[in-house]
Amino acid sequence: MGNCCSDVGGGMAAVSGAASSAATGNQNDAVDMYLRSHGIHGLFSQIELSFSATSLRDRDVFSKSDPMVVVYIKERDGAINEVFRTEVVLNSLTPTWIAKYTITYHFEVVQNLLFKVFDVDTQYHNVEMKMLKLEEQQSLGEACCTLSEIVTKPNRSLTLDLIRREESVSSTHSQHCGKLTVHAEECFSSKSTADIILRCIDLESKDLFSKSDPFLVISKLVESGISIPVCKTEVLKNDHNPTWKPVFLNIQQVGSKDSPLVIECFNFNSNGKHDLIGKVRKSLADLEKLHLGREGENLYLPTLVGHNYENKILNSKLLVDKFSETAQHTFLDYLAGGFELNFMVAIDFTASNGNPRLPDSLHYIDPSGRLNAYQKAIYGVGEVLQFYDADRRYPAWGFGARPIDGPVSHCFNLNGSSNYCEVQGIQGIMMAYTSALFNVSLAGPTLFGHVINRASVVACDSLSTGAKKYFVLLIITDGVITDLQETKDALVKASDLPLSILIVGVGGADFKEMEILDADKGERLESTTGCIASRDIVQFVPFRDVQSGEISMVGALLAELPTQFLTYMRRRDIKPST
Questions:
Q1: What is the model's pLDDT at position 206?
Q2: Which of 39, 158, 171, 208 is the most exposed place for a label (fewest CB within 10 A)?
Q3: Which pLDDT score, from 0 to 100, does residue 43 have?
Q4: What does the pLDDT average to over 555-575?
Q5: Where is the C2 domain (predicted)?
Q6: Cβ burial 117-149 (10 Å sphere, 16+ → b, else e)
Q7: Within-domain flag for 100
Q8: Percent over 70 (pLDDT), the chain
């Protein structure tokens, strides 16, 4: 019967198209609390996942398999929770399922997904889908990935090899289980925003001794005929020919460009009982035509005539001085367009960290495998960002140490090379960090300017070649910086580059100066020459404030990164070509 089961009779509950199922995944309460207390809001996008498969195994004797996909979320503690089931597609080894799974995408969290494909036996086709006992169905294979792996693909489609659980321990080469393709779509009906300037002429006076104080209310009409306000202008005092400030209407917000809108002009009264001066009913498309034709539309006023209301046409007119549409591209649009986030790291090797060979040192490498604060920060941030970097080659530096037989360096290559600074993968950073601890002498002071300038050179070189790259520098430090102004100068310059800087403070030092670098309170950094940072590119988190675990630290660090990325792209009018 192919991939469409809508013509199957008999009330087959399991064999049907289903409404999309939504889930946000488990939120980390510590992350949310920290972010809210600091006025930070992370990137949360609704993603709709759809599924198809090819070359599935045929487990039925007289027909083809009847497959269904079951989706699970794998938590960090190892727990696996079922969150969604598709419909059953009858008699198909190349199914495309109709039901879609909606999940909230969290940039700052690694969201692990598990997909299992089952062949639903014929005797269970009349059973409600949610009531099916999976242990009674035959497994066709399973696959896992992260949500980040899907959304970072240019076409947002990821094809996974299906394997059988019992075969996953041994070789699977002799058994072909087929492939599962997962496709992601961001849940937006429109990303266009209409920028409109409205004005009225010859408004009638509603006040006895002065002119009216007009304002506009724009409402959308829903199917039931009810109007729902979506926008309101400011009140203009004593003005019969008002021109209001621009209003911005997201086309998704009003339904569509052809959806009917009611624009009402009121006279403001302090008692809240505003007088209706007049109104018009127009769609966004109509308003655009008024703008292009430089014509006005007469307002009308519903007036009681006998027992019925009639629309009295007024001399007052509504005019559209400006109408333009702009596309507000999302973070995921840029990923689909081939943009990458390139991870860089700089580690504090100053003497205040303590002797690395002693257990009380912040740099102590525990033989049991327990990670120190530096390792937690590297692993936690790197674990998230690695999915957004194609080659996973990361520049890694140290600062505040004396290499063997050399002067104190405030920016040296962590891998010990004098020619190149990159290491391969997160494990490469970890190995280079451990090796450096035994090949340099901890010294001081704590200076940030050198490593920020070095990262800026990397970003600037990439920018000059037209590469689709945005860089993220992680600085991990235990102390108060002694080059505050030099650091400000470096940050002001870097604010014009595709670069964000994450700072993790470890240990018990006073990190007040770090808060100055993080301009969350709206105070932009100023350089020695009086130049102001074009945007905020720093996010600082003291490790002790998020002792509940590295996930909280990572969430707090990365929450602002997509916004910083978008601010850079939009201010330079960089579009995500697809």
A1: 81
A2: 208
A3: 57
A4: 87
A5: 27-160, 176-300
A6: bbbbbeebbebebeebeeeebebbbbbebbbbb
A7: yes
A8: 86
CATH number, domain of 73, equals 2.60.40.150
Q: Are residues 142 and 203 in the same domain?
A: no
Cβ atoms of 91 and 38 closer than 8 Å: no
Which pLDDT score, from 0 to 100, does residue 19 have?
42
- Domain presence at residue 217: yes
Q: What is the DSSP letter of 129?
A: G
445: how many CB neighbours lie within 10 A of its CB? 16
Helix (H) or strand (E) holding 323: strand 308-327
Is residue 399 located within the same domain as residue 519? yes
d(CA 3, CA 308): 55
Beta strands 538-542; 499-505: pairing state: parallel
Does 511 share its domain with 433? yes
Entry field: residues in the chain: 578
Query: d(Cα 460, Cα 235) in Å, to the nearest integer?
Result: 47
Alpha-carbon gap, residue 576 to 372, rounded angstroms:
39
State whether 265 and 397 are in the same domain: no
Average pLDDT, the chain: 85
Domain that holds residue 227: 190-327
The pTM for the full model equals 0.71
| Tokens at 472, concatenated | 């993220």
Residue 532 backbone dihedrals phi, psi, to 5 degrees? -105, 140
* Same-domain pairing of 454 and 547: yes
pLDDT (tens digit per residue) in 471-519: 999 999 998 889 999 999 999 999 999 999 999 999 888 787 787 888 6
| DSSP 8-state secondary structure symbol assigned to residue 300 | E
User: Which of the residue ranges 174-178, 529-533, 570-574 would you say has the lowest mean pLDDT?
Assistant: 174-178
Q: Which residues pair with 282 in a beta bridge?
A: 261
Q: What gap in Å lies between CA 498 and CA 472, rounded to an integer?
A: 9
Using CA atoms, how far apart are residues 47 and 71, in angstroms rounded to an integer?
A: 14
Q: What is the DSSP string of 177-246?
A: --EEEEEEEE--S--EEEEEEEEEESPPP-SSSS---EEEEEEEEPTTS-EEEEEE----TT-SS-BPPP
Question: Where residue 517 sits, what CATH number does that domain have?
Answer: 3.40.50.410
Sequence-ordered list of residues with C-beta below 8 angstroms from that of 101, at least 6 positions apart, any chain? 20, 21, 23, 48, 49, 71, 83, 84, 86
**102: CB partners within 8 A, 6+ apart:** 20, 21, 22, 23, 46, 47, 48, 49, 187
Asked if residue 170 has pLDDT above 60, the reply is no
Distance CA 363, CA 367 (A): 13
Number of Cβ within 10 Å of residue 564's Cβ equals 21
> Is 30's pLDDT higher than 80?
no
Q: How many CA atoms lie within 13 A of 36 on its CB side?
A: 6
Are 394 and 432 spatial neighbours (Cβ–Cβ below 8 Å)? no
Categorize the per-residue pLDDT at 7 as very low, low, confident or very high, splitting at 50, 70 and 90: very low
